């Protein structure tokens, strides 16, 4: 593959990030088929067992298999992050496209609304939504999406404002091409790489925010497995030697977020090689 994105397939960091992400996706997708233990099965007699061949990641305080719960937590984190990224890209990208191309009062109104949302720290905003709607999957998704939409909006709005002043857009207007057709056929394709980069960053943000909501009890509720909740449960035993309860879900969060951030950085460098070289 030629062009700046073709270099990604020969980039060691990109391949490492993609390999980590692919490994976790495969574990989440096919893990339950290979490790046939229900993450909700309780075995009090086997509670707080250290990692063994029967339980490679040990068991928790009520005897549930940590590996099964780790796989379940991966499925939850990946699903929620994908949904948040998809919805945020669709809504934030569409608003940014319309506002950036149209300008005028619509641009002013949407920009003020986005500025008001950005006035709140993203995690605090997601927590406030979760508190208002009640803990759970739906409230977590809504809160994280609401925090992510302004990022898409501001980025796409600026990019579209740059593109709409180019010569080929003026030529399309002179030829009588309608505004919706100009946006869909000429402007949107020019913003795809920018959307991909932002989506990678939002995916990482979603992973960390979902874990943070679970950690404080506002995300996925027990007994469903979720990495942030698993870390919270493991804290009660952190000082008594049961290190595996919090280590493995914490490692999963770290690897998944690091892989997504690495992909976002390499995509950004591919789009703008000057940034990778530190050029002004």
UniProtKB/TrEMBL annotation:
Membrane keyword on record: yes
Entry's localization field: Cell membrane
Biological process terms in GO annotation: peptide transport; protein transport; transmembrane transport
TM spans (from-to): 12-35, 76-101, 113-131, 137-156, 195-220, 243-264
InterPro entries per the UniProt record, alphabetical: BP-dependent_transpt_permease (IPR050366), MetI-like (IPR000515), MetI-like_sf (IPR035906)
The keyword Protein transport appears for this protein: yes
Major site of localization recorded for this protein: membrane
Alphabetical list of CDD domains matching this protein: TM_PBP2 (cd06261)
Membrane topology: Multi-pass membrane protein
Ranges of residues in domain ABC transmembrane type-1: 74-264
GO CC terms, sorted: plasma membrane
Pfam family, one: BPD_transp_1
UniProt keywords, alphabetically: Cell membrane, Membrane, Peptide transport, Protein transport, Transmembrane, Transmembrane helix, Transport
Protein family membership: Belongs to the binding-protein-dependent transport system permease family.
The protein's name in its UniProt record: ABC transporter permease
Organism: Aureimonas endophytica
């Amino acid at each position: 593959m030629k062009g700046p994105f073709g270099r990604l397939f020969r980039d060691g960091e990109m391949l490492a990030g993609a390999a980590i992400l692919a490994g976790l996706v495969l574990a989440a997708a096919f893990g339950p088929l290979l490790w046939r233990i229900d993450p909700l099965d309780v075995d009090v007699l086997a509670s707080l067992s250290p990692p063994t061949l029967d339980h490679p990641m040990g068991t928790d305080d009520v005897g549930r298999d940590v590996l099964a719960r780790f796989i379940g937590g991966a499925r939850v984190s990946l699903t929620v992050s994908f949904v948040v990224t998809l919805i945020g890209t669709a809504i934030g990208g569409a608003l940014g496209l319309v506002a950036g191309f149209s300008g005028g009062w619509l641009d002013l109104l949407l920009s003020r609304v986005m500025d008001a949302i950005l006035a709140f720290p993203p995690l605090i905003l997601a927590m406030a939504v979760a508190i208002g709607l009640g803990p759970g999957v739906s409230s977590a998704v809504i809160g994280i999406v609401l925090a992510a939409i302004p990022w898409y909006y501001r980025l796409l709005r600026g990019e579209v404002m740059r593109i709409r002043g180019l010569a080929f857009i003026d030529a399309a207007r002179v030829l009588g091409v309608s505004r919706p057709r100009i946006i869909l056929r000429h402007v949107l394709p020019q913003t795809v790489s920018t959307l991909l980069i932002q989506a990678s960053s939002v995916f990482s943000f979603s992973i960390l925010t979902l874990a943070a909501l679970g950690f404080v009890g506002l995300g996925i509720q027990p007994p469903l497995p979720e990495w942030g909740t698993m870390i919270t449960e493991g804290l009660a035993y952190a000082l008594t030697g049961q290190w595996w309860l919090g280590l493995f879900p914490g490692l999963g969060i770290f690897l998944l977020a690091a892989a997504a951030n690495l992909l976002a950085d390499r995509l950004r460098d591919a789009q703008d090689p000057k940034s990778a070289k530190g050029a002004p």
